[in-house]
Amino acid sequence: MTRKSYALALAAAFATSPALAADLTYSDPTPSYSEPVASSGGWSGAYVGAHIGTSSDHLSPFSDESEFMGGIQGGYNAEMGGAVVGGELELSHMGDTEVDVPGGELKERYRLAAKAKVGAPLGDTLIYGTAGGTMTSLRDTSTAEGPDGWKPGWLLGAGVEQKFNNQISGRVEYNYTRTGDVRSFNGTSTNETNLSDHAIKAGVNYKF
Questions:
Q1: Within 13 Å, how many C-alpha atoms sit on residue 71's CB side?
Q2: Which first-to-last residue range defines the signal peptide (predicted)?
Q3: CA nearest 133: which of 87, 97, 68?
Q4: Phi/psi at 151 (nearest 5 deg)?
């Protein structure tokens, strides 16, 4: 066989063996590198929930004057620049928490709170502070008479919230609430005083 005939035979063999040609020419593609995307804590979104706890005009939640309280809440969170900011509306039944006034006591019945919240997300945990305005309804007792209707005030607080899954989370929160210039009558004199209470609440939220 001449060199020319050998070359033609070799070319024909390659032409009739595409799988062999593919094997000889194929190479694995160079794997591409994708920079990992920072994962979100998943705190953004609207939520609703409920809470229970204790309230008292003393700091200790286990004092003899502490009352059982509970209510509902709803709000919205947004993650911005590594922080979580949000707003919340809360309605609570205060369990007739007794608060001291000159010469007697009044009872706190209901409270509506509008709160702003700023927190630091640590994965599935959120540590936050809160502040806002309140409206509290007061009731008379045998020792003092108070104002009709709702009285305005403000609150400060802090809490920690833990995600159980993408929708459900639990939290514990402390609130200090001040209701100013409350007029009361103790049977002999009329007085104005500032009322305050401490509430410790455990709650659960469902995020949409």
A1: 20
A2: 1-21
A3: 87
A4: -115, 135
Report residue 165 as tokens: 């899954």
The alpha carbon of 43 is separated from its chain's Cα centroid by a whole number of angstroms, namely 8
What six digits make up the tokens of 1?
């066989």
What is the spatial distance between Cα 204 and Cα 71, in angstroms, rounded to a whole number?
11
- CB within 8 Å of 27: residues ≥ 6 apart: none
DSSP secondary structure code for residue 38 in this structure: P
Q: What phi-psi label fits residue 14: left (phi over 0), alpha (psi between -120 and 50 degrees) or beta? A: alpha
**pLDDT one-digit tens code per residue, 55-107:** 999 887 677 778 999 999 999 999 999 999 999 999 999 999 999 999 999 99
DSSP string for residues in 87-109: EEEEEEEEEEEEEEETTEEEEEE
In this structure, the chain runs to a length of 208
* Distance in angstroms (rounded) separating the CA atoms of residues 108 and 77: 29
Rg (alpha carbons) of the chain, rounded to whole number = 34
Residue 117: strand pairing partners: 86, 130
DSSP string, 150-206: EEEEEEEEEEEEEESSSSEEEEEEEEEEEEEEEEEE-SS-EEEEEEEEEEEEEEEEE
For 189, the 3-state DSSP assignment is coil
Residues near 62 by beta carbon (within 8 Å), at least 6 away in sequence: 54
